[in-house]
Design a protein that fits this description.
The chain is of the alpha+beta class and 310 residues long. Helix content is 42%, strand content 17%. The chain contains 11 helices and 9 strands. The radius of gyration is 23 Å and the shape is elongated. It starts with a helix and ends in a 16-residue tail after the last helix.
Length: 310
């Protein structure tokens, strides 16, 4: 039994496909399959049921895979201990970030983080919250940036800033003449929302105190980005809510349609999250510091009206 064989087993479990697992491990599929067969022969068990598509672990295979993840993590710990002792860090650092944060935050902190960790190969991927949690638990990601609280078992949440919701209200809308918007004035029947799977959508639904099934719209669209919602609002299809940094980054013309929401101002809590067993804690700490120093200081103040993203 070797660490490499265990890594191949974990890769197949992650991808549920031998060819994709081989590609991820930078080996040929025959090589990966042969090594897993050898391990199964040595243990005298079947780890995967190959008759199913996608490939599925057997019941005993699930136990073997869970222990394989522990062994791989512990083996990596030896190198991490050495790096931390020397204060020198190298290798990959994989970060997940949700799409409603990345366009407005990444450009603010990436340069500082890379300067503080010049030998780290930073890999950033946009994913939705449920995908991030799955990949963190499988050790595919080292850390992530998303809206909290989530209260997931085994996951640590470190808030880095608190971002108010802003209203984008076009000319001619019923609220266009108002200096600010009251929470009670937010109605889902003229609110443009992101599509399902985005936690910001869930936050808006929670803020309005309604479920998505309990209101009617004359117009319905699924969009994965704020730019589409803004253009639709400008075309007379309603209003939308934006996170603070999205409003700050708008041009002069667009910013004229941004209105604050009255106190208690709804806010989303943005955190760096990672597993309790995370080995790259120094890198996580550097990430947290880089983000905190890159956003406006007023966003560091905790807000009592945090709207849950789930």
């Amino acid at each position: 039994m070797t660490i490499t064989q265990l890594e191949y087993v974990v890769a197949v479990d992650n991808h549920r496909h031998f060819a994709k697992a081989a590609e991820a491990c930078f080996v040929t599929q025959p090589t990966l399959s042969m090594q897993i067969h050898k391990l199964e022969d040595e243990l005298d068990i079947l780890i995967f049921d190959r008759s199913k598509q996608p490939v599925t672990p057997t019941e005993v295979g699930k136990k073997i895979i869970a222990q394989a993840r522990v062994v791989i993590t512990q083996s990596k710990l030896i190198k991490q201990i050495s790096q931390q002792e020397k204060g020198f860090f190298e290798g990959d650092f994989r970060i997940g970030i949700i799409p409603t944060i990345s366009p407005y935050l990444l450009h603010r902190f990436l340069s500082k983080f890379q300067k503080s960790m010049p030998h780290i190969n930073l890999i950033v991927e946009e994913l939705q919250t449920d995908q991030i949690i799955t990949q963190l638990k499988k050790d595919v990601l080292d850390a992530a940036i998303l809206a909290t609280p989530l209260e997931e078992n085994g996951i640590i949440e470190k808030p880095v800033y608190y971002e108010p919701f802003m209203a984008y209200i076009p000319e001619g809308h019923r609220l266009s003449k108002e200096e600010f918007v009251l929470n009670s004035e937010l109605k889902l029947n003229d609110m443009l929302l992101l599509n399902e799977g985005h936690c910001f959508r869930n936050s808006v639904l929670n803020l309005c105190g309604q479920s998505d099934e309990n209101h009617e719209r004359q117009f319905s669209i699924e969009s994965g980005n704020f730019e589409t919602l803004i253009r639709l609002a400008d075309s007379g299809y309603g209003m939308t809510l934006l996170p603070y940094l999205a409003g700050v980054d708008m041009d002069k013309e667009g910013s004229q349609h941004i209105k604050p929401i009255a106190e208690p101002r709804p806010t989303r809590e943005i955190s760096v999250i990672y597993r309790r067993t995370q080995l790259k804690i120094k890198l996580v700490e550097a990430l947290i510091e880089s983000i905190k120093s890159a956003v406006p200081k007023k966003l560091s103040q905790k807000n009592d009206n945090v709207v849950a993203p789930v």
